[in-house]
Amino acid sequence: MGHVDHGKTSLLDAIRNTSVAAGEAGGITQHIGASIANINGRNITFIDTPGPEAFTAMRARGAQVTDVIVLVVAADDGVMPQTIEAINHAKAANVPIVVAVNKIDKAGANPDKVRQELVDYGVIPEEWGGQNMFVEVSAKQKLGIDDLLETIILQADVLELKANPDALATGFVIEANLDEGRGPVATVLIQRGTLKQGDVVVAGSSYGRVRALIDPHGKHVKGAAPAEPVEILGLNSVPTAGDEFRVFEDERDARKLASERAMRARLAEQEVKGHMSLDDLFNRIEEGKQTDLNLIVKADVQGSIEALRDAFEKMDQSEVRINIVHSAVGGITETDVTLAAASDAIIIGFNVRPTGKSKVQAEHEGVDIRLYRVIYQAIEDINAARVGLLSPDIIEEDTGIAEVRDIFKVPKVGTIAGCYIVEGEISRDNKIRIVRDGTVVFEGTIASLRRFKEDVKTVKQGYECGIGINGYQDIKIGDTIEGYVVKEVERTQ
Length: 493
Fold this sequence. Notes:
This protein has helices spanning 8-16, 51-60, 81-93, 111-119, 145-159, 251-270, 281-286, 302-313, 334-343, 358-365, 375-386, and strands at residues 34-39, 42-47, 69-74, 97-102, 133-136, 170-179, 183-192, 195-196, 200-203, 206-214, 220-221, 223-224, 229-235, 244-248, 292-299, 321-329, 345-350, 369-372, 394-410, 414-427, 431-436, 439-451, 454-455, 458-460, 464-469, 480-488. By secondary structure, the chain is an alpha+beta fold. It has a six-stranded antiparallel barrel. Strands 19-20-25-22-21-26 form a six-stranded antiparallel barrel. Helix 2 (51-60) packs parallel to helix 3 (81-93) and helix 9 (334-343) packs parallel to helix 10 (358-365).
């Protein structure tokens, strides 16, 4: 894991002694999502499923797939946003981190600076009294590769990672897809036992008899031992990444379990999982259930994050311990929602908005997103929630979203935004916020709302209109205008 362009793929290529970047797959089936390296007669399986989001989505489903995380940080670049994200995801999953300081051959490389920066995020080198092993490597020059592999083996020995190869096989699905010629194909990682051709397998709500096993080199094999990734053919449907699989001796038992799981999955889809929210924090405390309050903090600038973090740390932690699981600058993304679901956290957004499908995903997952524009409001809400006094009398109810597609300069009037209503409706008396790249850049009111040359009171989804903003001329193509109304509501709990 690590930041984009810090050399994760190049490092994996160097380990496998292949050159995927140059288009030479070297016998590795790229879509299998895992590959094996050998050092001193011992195998290490590298899982290269994309990004921390997939990793956390697996963890949210209860899948502890990885034993060790290799955090790749470029020596000439240092800690970057995705590096921090990877650290937070690793900590949330409680998986040990080995740091590979890459690109040490480049001009401007400063491995000690990387160490110093990582200390701020709780990743402390062993030589500095911490628990994290650091290895300096160059994927391009193939320097330090053996040292890295030996360090991973050493970490495995320290953790005493062992598995019984003689039991009935169990493990997790890494990836799965429907192949036109071969039917449902699942890439699985064996964690215990040996998976053999002909075994009856249940993976999530899928089941079947293993018709074929294919190793990372694309070869058909008769069996797969612990820590070996293989593709399996023969399932009746496509399982989900993170599903646990088990071998059964009786096919009827396998079919029965798969049917029960499918039924439970259908029922679960109708019930949204009740994740932590500020509304029920006090109830959980009274029931003795809640001692930790996990937060994900997103803000428009780093200074706001520091101010919020400082304020939360100064709060009384005797009854409720406040943990900031992840913090970053920018809009609230689907990755943030996935991490919140996995770590039962509340998302605090300061002067930012949900981007993409993150709002819909949060509603589906039951994740509480709280948006603020004044820091003390966030602090007051959390303090009030701890003592059962949370009473938001005033709420902002979104009415619609308009996308700015053109800009018109009108003499004596100013800038008019040519908009398309993508959701809901925008009314003349709405309050509005202008959002750019997930960050709120202005809040105010509508000066004019027109369709063609006519003044109108409201414009619905699917129609175009011209919107003038009171006191704001710096609107840009690509901005979104969110309309909302302020309502007073009575608390029912």
